[in-house]
Amino acid sequence: MFxxxxxxxxxxxxxxxxxxxxxxxxxxxxxxxxxxxxxxxSRKHANVLPAIGIHPWFVTESFVSDLVVLERxxxxxxxxxxxxxxxxxxxxxxxxxxxxxxxFQKQLNLAESxxxxxxxxxxxxxxxxxxxxxxxxxxxxxxGLGTSIEIAKQYIDLGFKFGVNGVAVRENAxxxxxxxxxxxxxxxxxxxxxxxxxxxxxxSSSLADINTIAECVAKLLSIPIEDVIxxxxxxxxxxxxxxxx
Length: 245
Prior knowledge:
The chain contains 8 helices and 8 strands, in the order ββαβαβαβαβαβαβαα. Helix 2 packs parallel to helix 3 (97-114) and helix 7 (209-221) crosses helix 8 (225-240). Helices cover 42% and strands 16% of the residues. It is an alpha/beta fold. It has one domain (2-9, 22-240): TIM Barrel. It has a 5-stranded parallel beta sheet with strand order 4-5-6-7-8. Strands 1-2-3 form a 3-stranded parallel beta sheet.
């Protein structure tokens, strides 16, 4: 399987051993301090792809100079995606709204010029996000999308997939369940968002949680889990390993 959204830098300075797995992982970063470690980790593990970008929570006044570093790293390393990037207009972050928009727009430009996928975080900013994406030839994944079917359809019409994570395992995740049932396997990928999302009843998260997420999707669609694994893996490979197919 392909875990299209996880944060693996905690393994760099940890006694916890990175699992010996046939799975693939997109290791997303959030700010300039993460990028070198993200690239370093991918060099140690052939099944880990690096994604570098400025998450909206970490957009500071220095984002312009940070983007200079980002562009230089894109030119000198084999980067799979620009991410985790996006917009978050939740109460805690909306004071940086204008900087967020400018920062994302510049990262969107870099994604287009380098023909790279985006790993997108969007909270309470879908109108602004869709307007920006429509202005470019962008592609990628909307991470953890839990919107209405109408909004999701606009992303899909632009060529994006949406990431299904452990939130969908919750019994009351009606909006997530509706999206999965409506759009089916063609338009989704799987993700754990490790270590940020814990499955119901568990005290910690695990990269192995992707198995439970796949089982959940299979149950919702009344299909074999093998079909879920095969199609979502294909979707992810096509986005993040464009030369592999």
